[in-house]
Amino acid sequence: MEKEARKAPGLLGQAWLILLLAAFFGSSLAGVEIALKPRIERNKRNETFGQIPFLVPGGSSQKSVETRMGGIRVIRVLSDKGDHLGWVLPASGQGFADRIELLVGLDRKAERITGLYVLDQKETPGLGSHIQDKDGFLRGFEGQPADKSLRVVKGRPAPHSGGIRAITGATISSLSVCNIVNRAVRDFRKALAGSEGKD
Amino acid sequence: MVDSGPTALERFINGILPENPTYRQLLGMCPTLAVTNGLKPALTMAGATAFVLICANFITSLIRNALKPHLRILVFTLTIATFVTIADRFLQAFMPAMSKVLGPYVPLIIVNCIIIARCEVCASKQPVGTALADALGCSLGFALGLASIASVREILGTGCLLGARVLPEAWPNWGIMVLPPGAFLTLGLLLGLVEWAGAARKKAGGNQG
């Protein structure tokens, strides 16, 4: 008996505080998320529409409309006069550290990528974070063909050949962005072809 | 439980200058170097860190008697991570542009040694009042550290402070000051200055006594 009483407390005896705190913190975080999520989503939407003129040249932030095509969320980019110029495709996927959220600009027939923007990322500062360099890594996507998969290459690729120059020290981040773009563009092209077939 | 540590006032004052997190303890160097290229991001970072530090110290001190010694670091990390997530989501909701500028450095507050050090040194051993005074003092000390480095970098690098011009138009902006090397240069020089001033004061005190 004495021996048993002296034994270290069981699992619950040791961990009750952590379990209690985890439940309390978890529900607090859920509350914060419920309260703030609509606002965060609205900020993201505003940022997305603000980027339209840079993603599809000539596109209007005011005139463009959000729509769904084959279950895929996409923005139909219109000019000030209402001409259909292209598409902005929100895409996301796993990066090196956390999810990467991208906006892919496409021309009207989704044959070429017209621009790329990083909406959210938490890659390693100074290495993977270079995926958001507008004059470096992202520039490499402009004008690339959308009908074939892009691939990460070492060194300088031939222009518009489907090759994207990798960021030194951030191979996984570079690959992740390429894969997210490839998958999103492929799915969207399929949906677009399907909807044109129906028309 | 007898509280034998420093009093609340001592903790508060120690955190600001005598045990300044940046210049005396050299803690939290990652944000010190990374987000001090402008005063505004530096102050936002200081504010977010202060929020997390104060909340973490408060909770830790409240539960200090129930803490199991071998599980304490886990409890600290859990507490800190919760408040960092709240701070991060708050910035994303109400200051989206600043949240983008600070990027991953806000989630990285979780691994900021200042906070875990305060939980370990003070909050897990002392009552709530003392823990709050300690958190407040350290937060002010950290804000002072970040703001001093950021002010020097922004003024020399852009000629402005918080967007307002402070140096004449003719000032050739020292571009290097807002780039990463500027952070190391400024930190090194200010650290030297603080050490030199401390040594000079000690000498003067020694001569008198």
What keywords describe this structure?
heterodimer; A: 199 residues; alpha+beta; 3 helices; 23% strand; B: 209 residues; mainly alpha; two-stranded antiparallel ribbon; 9 helices; 69% helix; 2% strand
Question: How would you characterize this protein structure?
Answer:
The complex is a heterodimer of chains A (199) and B (209). Chain A has 199 residues and is of the alpha+beta class. Chain A has 3 helices and 7 strands; from the N terminus they run ααβββββββα. Chain A has a 5-stranded antiparallel sheet, with helices on both faces. In chain A, strands 6-7 form a two-stranded parallel sheet. In chain A, β3 (84-94) and β4 form a beta hairpin. The termini of chain A are far apart. The relative contact order of chain A is 0.12. Chain B has 209 residues and is mostly helical. Chain B has one domain (8-208). The longest helix of chain B has 31 residues, at 128-158. Chain B is flat, with a radius of gyration of 19 Å. Classes of the chains: A alpha+beta (199), B mainly alpha (209). At the A-B interface, α2 of A face α4 of B.
Produce the secondary structure layout:
The complex is a heterodimer of chains A (199) and B (209).
Chain A (H helix, E strand, L loop, with lengths): L1 H5 L4 H45 L9 E5 L2 E7 L5 E11 L4 E9 L5 E8 L30 E3 L9 E3 L5 H28 L1
Chain B lengths: L7 H9 L12 H6 L4 H24 L9 H23 L1 H7 L10 H11 L4 H31 L1 E2 L2 E2 L9 H4 L1 H29 L1
Antiparallel strand pairs in B: 1-2
Helix pairs in contact in B: 1-7, 3-4, 3-6, 3-7, 4-5, 4-6, 6-7, 7-9
